[in-house]
Amino acid sequence: MNTLKVCILAGDGVGPEITAEAVKVLKSVCNAKNYELQLTEGLIGGCAVDAEGIPLSPATVEKCRAAGAVLLGAVGGPQYDSLPSNLRPEAGLLAIRTKLGLFANLRPTKVFPILKEVSPLKNKIIENGMDILVVRELTGGIYFGEKGVTEIDGEPSAYDVMMYSEYEVERIAKVAFEAACKRRHKVTCVDKANVLESSKLWRRVVDRVAADYPNVELCYMYVDNAAMQLMRNPSQFDVLLTENMFGDILSDEASMLAGSIGILPSASTGHGTLGLYEPIHGSAPDIAGKGIANPLATILSVAMMLRYSFHLENEALSIEQAVEDSLFFGRTPDLADTAYPAKTTAEIGSFIAERVAEILK
Ligand code: NAD
Ligand code: IPM
Ligand code: MN
């Protein structure tokens, strides 16, 4: 019998609401297929600060390591914004990524045909199809470089260093090229090589890695242009490879092509077997506790988990199909319109859990 060990880190804000729905769907898959599901729960972010005084305790890290995969909701909230950087909820998220060696963050963006009307872009721009995989470097760059406050000519000043080693670039570039081989064989490396020394290093290393993938077309694009091209002609992109901060920003931008940030999942992986799966959005404090957060990003993250951590392709596809079907049944307010009146987070989650069971029957 297949045993799935999953550690749930619900986190803050809408985190507990959306992970509850994703767990419903995961349980439904395991029920339908007679898999044993072993769930554990851990604290991360603001809830960990409240309970333990720190955003990520060794106990949570241990729980993650003991699991086959981790499902994370989101962290953060305005009540924690004045804490020192190392105690902020976000520090817990950055720490779990480093501690688990999760240097590769995969953020797929697709337009579900039925959501074309919801996308703020004109139909003629997205109707060519838009299917982009953002491969975001996750444990290096400006997030993790030296930072501090200082004085320049008596003026209070601050700095954050963006630094990359060749090794860090090489391993993420390989992830992007491997992904492109299974897709449309194109990698666009997004950087700021007209200004940044670190981007020049990226280009040298990416060129070298590309030589091992003659069937993959490589092009480079400056990040400011890429932000514009995503709106102008998103179907030109297949795999978009980029550093940590650019990837964070561009993936939020790309999410709106699909209709809402509430539907984009992600997978974070490394050289080990353990993966962490989370929506790309945050804790959405403005809608937390109202039962209206879109659970699709987290549910689709479970599909990525089944695919990458447990090699259950059919089960992953069944979730993706059920999510698409749910768009005809009802939507949370971020996607609702007159034809599809708003439903709650829990109603959508329950629909998908039942639909998955039917598909897998
Ligand atoms: P956010 O992604 O939380 O919210 C941005 C906007 O998108 C808000 O209007 C929100 O209501 C909406 N939104 C987000 N997720 C949604 C969903 N599932 N359904 C419907 N609407 C949704 O970004 P923010 O407001 O900049 O950040 C809020 C907090 O979350 C901050 O503390 C930030 O640091 C944190 N954050 C955490 C993560 C993470 O845990 N991975 C990611 C981004 C931001
Ligand atoms: C994300 C978030 C995080 C990031 C923050 C909360 C540290 O925006 O997961 O996209 O920038 O990586
Ligand atoms: Mn982000």
TrEMBL record:
Gene3D superfamilies, A to Z: Isopropylmalate Dehydrogenase
Pfam families on file: Iso_dh
UniProt cross-references to InterPro entries, sorted A to Z: IsoCit/isopropylmalate_DH_CS, IsoPropMal-DH-like_dom, Isopropylmalate_DH
Named cofactor requirement(s): Mn(2+); Mg(2+)
Chain positions recorded as NAD(+) binding sites: 77-90, 282-294
GO annotation terms (biological process): L-leucine biosynthetic process
HAMAP family tied to this protein: LeuB_type1
Protein name, UniProt field: 3-isopropylmalate dehydrogenase
Originating species: Hydrogenoanaerobacterium saccharovorans
Gene name of the encoded protein: leuB
